[in-house]
Amino acid sequence: NAGVMQNPRHLVRRRGQEARLRCSPMKGHSHVYWYRQLPEEGLKFMVYLQKENIIDESGMPKERFSAEFPKEGPSILRIQQVVRGDSAAYFCASSLTTGISYEQYFGPGTRLTVT
Amino acid sequence: AQSVSQHNHHVILSEAASLELGCNYSYGGTVNLFWYVQYPGQHLQLLLKYFSGDPLVKGIKGFEAEFIKSKFSFNLRKPSVQWSDTAEYFCAVNGGENTDKLIFGTGTRLQVFP
């Protein structure tokens, strides 16, 4: 893999709890993307961030979900008051730049199970 | 809005058979096209990509794909599959208003039997 780190790899939460998913992009990459993969489906874009800025959150559910990418530290995807429908694999990707000819590198994903 | 269609949801082949997985997209402007592979229990890995130039793109592990603009297609091919090619394959596109995000197809699950 190109070095994108995600943790935890597996996360179990009871309904109503909070889930925090972390993503450390490849060294030198300042663009982070979060995708969600529901069972038997392809990946769906959620949010695109640059350092300290949310650029595109058109794929984020309107409630309970938030994301940040602080100046220091990993990007965090936060899901409040989780429900069973949030069970999915959450993938983070990073890229060196943006524009028409860039490439996204994916992390191993976090598999969230809500019981 | 852009969309990606992968019509083959599940493909079963014997080793040495030839493979072609279909991918069609819905945007008429300049696009970047990708094929990713996800082996069981692993993350997505890039197989190949098309940005511009020669429409026949060579990727890793003997895979190739052909961009046919008139058909809005980017089919993935391999002349002779191996058991180790068993995986899920995703076609993705970006471009136009979606430049900063990838739009994925629903994936094709390939099973190769020895």
Order of helices and strands of chain B: EEEEEEEEEEEE
Largest sheet of chain A: 7 strands, mixed
The general outline of chain B is globular
State the distance separating the first and last CA atoms of chain B: 41 Å
Query: Which runs of chain B of at least 5 residues are low in confidence (pLDDT < 50)?
Result: none
Oligomer: heterodimer
Strand/helix succession of chain A: EEEEEEEEEEE
Q: Report the C-alpha radius of gyration of chain A, rounded.
A: 13 Å
Mean pLDDT of chain A: 91
Largest sheet of chain B: 6 strands, mixed
Strand fraction of chain B equals over 45%
- Our count of helices of chain B gives 0
The whole-angstrom Rg of chain B is 14 Å
Helix content of chain B: under 10%
Measured distance between first and last alpha carbons of chain A? 31 Å
Secondary structure: number of strands of chain B: 12
Q: What would you call the structural class of chain B?
A: mainly beta
What labels describe this entry?
heterodimer; A: 115 residues; mainly beta; four-stranded antiparallel β-sheet; 11 strands; 49% strand; globular; B: 114 residues; six-stranded mixed β-sheet; 12 strands
Protein described:
The complex is a heterodimer of chains A (115) and B (114). Chain A contains no helices and eleven strands. In chain A, a hairpin with a 6-residue loop joins strand 7 and strand 8 (75-79). With 115 residues, chain A is mainly beta. In chain A, the strands form two sheets. In chain A, strands 2, 4, 5, 6, 9, 10 and 11 form a seven-stranded mixed beta sheet that branches. Chain A has a four-stranded antiparallel beta sheet with strand order 1-3-8-7, with no helix packed on it. Chain A has strands spanning 5-7, 10-13, 19-24, 31-37, 43-50, 53-56, 65-68, 75-79, 88-95, 105-106, 110-114. The termini of chain A are far apart. Chain B is an all-beta fold. Helix content of chain B is 0%, strand content 51%. Chain B has no helices and twelve strands. In chain B, strands 2, 5, 6, 10, 11 and 12 form a six-stranded mixed beta sheet that branches. In chain B, strand 5 (31-38) and strand 6 form a beta hairpin. The radius of gyration of chain B is 14 Å and the shape is globular.
